[in-house]
Design brief:
The structure holds two protein chains of two kinds. Chain A has 13 helices and no strands. Chain A is an all-alpha fold. In chain A, 46% of the residues are buried. Chain B is of the alpha/beta class. Chain B has two domains: 2-76 and 154-250, Rossmann fold, CATH 3.40.50; 85-153, no CATH class. Chain B has ten helices and eleven strands. Chain B has helices spanning 40-47, 70-74, 92-98, 101-104, 110-122, 138-151, 168-183, 196-202, 220-223, 226-233; strands at 2-11, 14-24, 28-33, 55-60, 77-80, 156-160, 188-192, 205-210, 213-219, 237-242, 245-250. In chain B, α7 (168-183) links the parallel β6 and β7 (188-192). In chain B, α3 (92-98) runs parallel beside α6 and α5 (110-122) packs across α6. Classes of the chains: A mainly alpha, B alpha/beta. The A-B interface holds A 62, 195-197, 199-200, 202-204, 206-207, 209-214, 252, 256-258, 314 and B 48, 50, 70-75, 78-79, 81, 84-90, 94-95, 98-99, 101-102, 105-107, 134, 152.
């Protein structure tokens, strides 16, 4: 039954993608179609990566409220952008070739986030409250650093940084998109391969180790996959904090299962679905293409509050 | 046979176990009793290879639980932990099925399903097998976790306070079931008990622990004397006989 719902999600995504591409298509068709396809690809990649990465993170952290964004990942991205502009200057940073910058961002973010999550989970994996607090404080620290650096900048440089602070699907480089898609597919496939082991890890560290699962190794691999997914998606469009939480909770609700072989694809499809549907509505129907990130953050944030407030611990 | 020699364990600077040396024979039920904080749970975790001791060695039928491959260890010894984490929407049958993980690593076969059915029957969970864990009572949940430990099908079962949250009937049923399992020689059971009378009634051997050391170890009948219990719990006890079985009462 849960599997069938995943199938429905896939069909819905297909239908929506077709609508996204074909809606009011005018001449020059080839050109517009190309633009739309790139945007569609980016939306799907980012949504899928965010959804799957959040499920991985929640399982490894044994907490349903955490997302990579909440423990300081976004702050890390903004600090990186800020430092880049500070060192090279606004014009210099804008002049780096897209492919090179993308590769650099993915690599740096991947390494930094593996270090960040590794630090959080290794030290505090048994104490979730401490882990959340450490993550939030790290986030505040990184944000503080960014702000301090931003104050030292001249206003035109600051404008460049500001652009990078919100997710934007405006201009997508097809080459970047291709690289991102390959990395994401590989990471998703690897995550699916370890789905049964993730199910065992979901029982908690103690029980999982008792059942003979090499928990430390599993956490490490899951962290690396997650770092790859989130880094690629963030480098592609920018940070989206709450989308992961929104998708992961919806995926759990919709499938009603603990099995990662279902949860991972469901969350990935839902993430893509939310972004494509949102962009379609805002861009084609309401005519305000840049509002999507803001709205996703708003609803994700509201959901986070709702989850925290009505949380029942069994 | 479990051989423990000079096993010491510490959390930071606080020693929990002080050079424990003993041997637990195969077959039968061995009960670990002792006051809170005596180190009983820690000892079980060390035997299962889940906590690394500061020094000393453990052999489970010749296997070193700290250096053996994880999967091999999980097929030699199963541990029921106290208050395991709860996964929402997990069904009883699925939980019990996780006990088969060391055997199939993600690809369950017909033998695994048969063993799950046996575990469900053995612990009277067949009726509950499709219920989600978070809809069960504490005692039913406890039985589901015990069934998972059983499904792991290891020669050694280590149970940390399995009578927690069980009503008198299910507590007796569980002890009788464990007793039966240990009779046919297939399973050796080490069990932490706070109910001394459960130990008196069902255990073959008793290990009495206090302050991270073994205070006494013997056949149940020989160990349960008012003197040993007084030294163990720092409180006077009386030993009565009821229908040929010892009954212990704190005075």
């Amino acid at each position: 039954m849960a599997e069938r719902r995943v199938l429905w999600l896939a069909l819905a995504l297909l239908a929506l993608s077709a609508a996204f591409l074909a809606w009011h298509l005018r001449a020059p068709m080839g050109f517009i179609l190309g633009l739309r396809a790139a945007k569609l690809g980016a939306l799907i990649c980012v949504g899928a990566a965010t959804g799957a990465a959040t499920i991985l993170f929640q399982t490894v952290a044994a907490n349903r409220l955490l997302t990579p964004g909440l423990v300081g990942f976004d702050a890390l991205f903004i600090l990186m952008q800020t430092l880049l502009v500070l060192i090279l200057g606004g014009v210099g940073a804008a002049q780096i070739p897209g492919g090179l910058r993308f590769a650099f961002e993915v690599l740096a973010l991947g390494l930094a986030s593996a270090a960040l999550f590794g630090l959080l989970l290794r030290r505090d994996a048994r104490d979730v409250t401490r882990m959340i607090l450490t993550g939030i404080i790290l986030g505040v620290l990184l944000r503080g650093l960014s702000e301090m650096v931003q104050r030292l900048m001249d206003p035109s440089d600051y404008a460049v940084v500001q652009q990078a602070m919100f997710a934007s699907f405006g201009r997508i480089d097809p080459q970047q998109l291709a690289v991102a898609a390959v990395v994401l597919l590989a990471a998703l496939a690897a995550a699916l391969r370890m789905a049964p082991a993730l199910d065992v890890a979901g029982l908690g560290r103690g029980t999982a180790r008792g059942l003979g699962l090499d928990h430390d190794r599993l956490v490490l691999v899951a962290l690396l996959l997650m770092a790859a997914m989130v880094s690629v998606s963030t480098a592609l469009v920018g940070p989206i904090t709450f989308l992961g939480l929104l998708t992961a909770s919806l995926a759990r609700q919709l499938t009603g299962t603990h099995r990662h072989a279902v949860l991972l694809p469901a969350a990935a499809l839902l993430g893509a679905l939310i972004l494509v549907a949102g962009q379609f509505v805002f861009e084609r129907l309401l005519g305000s293409p840049s509002a999507l990130a803001v709205i996703v953050e708003l609803f994700g944030g509201l959901l986070f509050l709702a989850l925290v407030l009505k949380r029942r611990r069994p | 046979m479990i051989e423990i020699s000079d096993l010491s364990y510490a959390v930071g600077q606080t020693p929990i176990l002080h050079g424990i040396t003993t041997t637990l024979e195969r077959g039968g039920i061995t009960a670990l009793i002792g006051p809170n904080g005596a180190g009983k749970s820690t000892l079980l975790h060390c035997l299962a290879g889940l906590e690394r001791p500061a020094s000393g060695r453990v052999r489970i039928d010749g296997l070193d639980p700290f250096t053996a491959p994880h999967r091999q260890r999980a097929r030699a010894v199963a541990l029921l932990q106290q208050s395991p984490a709860l996964v929402s929407r997990l069904k009883v049958r699925e939980l019990v099925g996780f006990g088969r993980w060391p055997h199939h690593q993600g690809r369950p076969g017909p033998e695994d399903r048969a063993q799950i059915d046996r575990a469900l029957t053995a612990f009277a969970l067949t009726e509950l097998q499709d219920r989600a864990l978070d809809t069960l009572s504490g005692g039913q949940r406890q039985r589901a976790f015990i069934a998972m430990t059983y499904a792991q099908d290891t020669p050694w079962m280590l149970l940390d306070e399995p009578l927690n949250a069980l009503d008198p009937r299910h507590a007796r049923d569980l002890m009788a079931r464990l007793h039966g399992l240990s009779r046919d020689g297939a399973r050796s059971i080490v069990i932490v008990l706070h109910d001394i009378n459960a130990a008196a009634g069902w255990a073959d051997h008793i290990v009495a622990m206090k302050d991270g050391r073994i205070l006494a170890q013997d056949h149940s009948a020989a160990l349960l004397t008012p003197e040993v219990l007084r030294d163990l719990y720092d409180t006077p006890f009386e030993l009565l006989q009821h229908k040929g079985r010892p009954v212990v009462v704190a005075r």
